[in-house]
Amino acid sequence: MPPCARCEKRGLDCIVSSRSTRCGECVRVNAPGCNTTGPSLADWEKLKREEDRLDREQELAELSILQAHQAAIESLARSQRLKKQRALLRERGSEMLRRGLATLDELEEAEERNRREAEARSTLPTPSNTNSEVVDPEHDPYWGLSPGFFDRLGADGGTPPATLGS
């Protein structure tokens, strides 16, 4: 038979009589709860209930940590978003000051006007599209030749003389 918890803890000899449920040492000092028969079913159930309770508490603590972490992430994102909004507002304020405008509405109207003007400029035809006599140097194969090039070939820009037999 295994020793009781008290005797085992103190390193004592645990001797149990067949007529008793308690060991001699526990009887001698009148110690309550001598467990020479080992833990009872109730002890095992109590141990299991306590273990389950601790597991539930640990899960709740971990869930609380996760929720706090998520809240911190959301707060950080909100802070960064507000920081960007504040920077944009300052930029718009300095733009208003630069333009001498009194309100954000005036600034928005001025920006819209500028956008429409730029759009109108981009749709107007360019001078190279309207004058067909002007040749773009990039598309003229003779542009890079020297002025004397054609004189050396006998082409002075006039009408060539007629030759016999032609």
Termini gap: 141 Å
Unreliable stretches (pLDDT < 50, length at least 5) are none
DSSP, total strands: 0
Helical fraction: 55-70%
Kindly state the mean pLDDT as a whole number? 81
Shape: elongated
Can you tell me the number of structural domains?
A: 2
Sheet-strand content, in percent, reads: under 5%
How many helical elements?
6
Helices and strands, in N-to-C order? Answer: HHHHHH
- Main sheet properties: none
**Structural class by SSE content:** mainly alpha
**How much is the radius of gyration in Å?**
51 Å
Care to describe what's here?
The protein has helices at residues 5-10, 24-29, 41-99, 104-123, 127-130, 149-152. The radius of gyration is 51 Å and the shape is elongated. It is 60% helix and 0% strand. It is an all-alpha fold and 166 residues long. The protein has two domains: 1-38; 41-123. The N and C termini lie far apart (141 Å). It contains six helices and no strands. The relative contact order is 0.04.
